[in-house]
Specification:
By secondary structure, the chain is mainly alpha-helical. The protein has nine helices and four strands, in the order H-E-H-H-H-H-H-H-E-H-E-E-H.
């Protein structure tokens, strides 16, 4: 399948992502969110031990591959939000589609998800909808 067809499918997938059910963050996630905003505002580093987490590394590497400019605080927030590499990658691709070449910080993350983040069932549905013949659209499409 050529990249233009993949890009068209990607745009359709992003439209689905736009319309999924959103939920308010649970208390623990809200505390982490606020903590990261404070760290970002004070320009304090996230501890190295947290940056070594597997999902943090997945988010950081895939962001670099697709050219998503993402700071350490948002990377950590996506780490907290994601229960699997697939969820992490879906967030990265969706955010790239929304922000184009702007750097992603906690404020822009807030404005991207003003009504909360996708529910667990919504993320499962989004994961299934990006499958193409058993393969992942998000691993095939080139969106630099």
């Amino acid at each position: 399948m050529d990249n233009q067809k993949l890009l068209d499918l990607f745009k359709e997938w992003c439209t689905k992502f736009d319309s999924v059910k959103r939920e308010q963050m649970p208390d623990e996630l809200s505390k982490n969110f606020m903590y990261l905003i404070l760290l970002e505002n004070d320009k304090k580093e996230i501890p190295l031990v947290l940056k070594e987490r597997f999902l943090y590394q997945v988010i950081e590497k895939r962001s670099n591959v697709i050219g998503l400019k993402i700071n350490q605080y948002v990377t950590m927030m996506l780490n907290f939000l994601s229960k699997s590499p697939g969820e992490a990658i879906m967030y990265v691709y969706y955010l790239k589609s929304k922000l184009k070449n702007n750097e992603l910080n906690m404020t822009s993350l807030t404005f991207t998800f003003p009504e909360g983040f996708p529910s667990e069932s919504s993320l499962e549905s989004l994961w299934r909808s990006q499958k193409i013949g058993g393969e992942n659209l998000l691993d095939m499409v080139e969106i630099n």
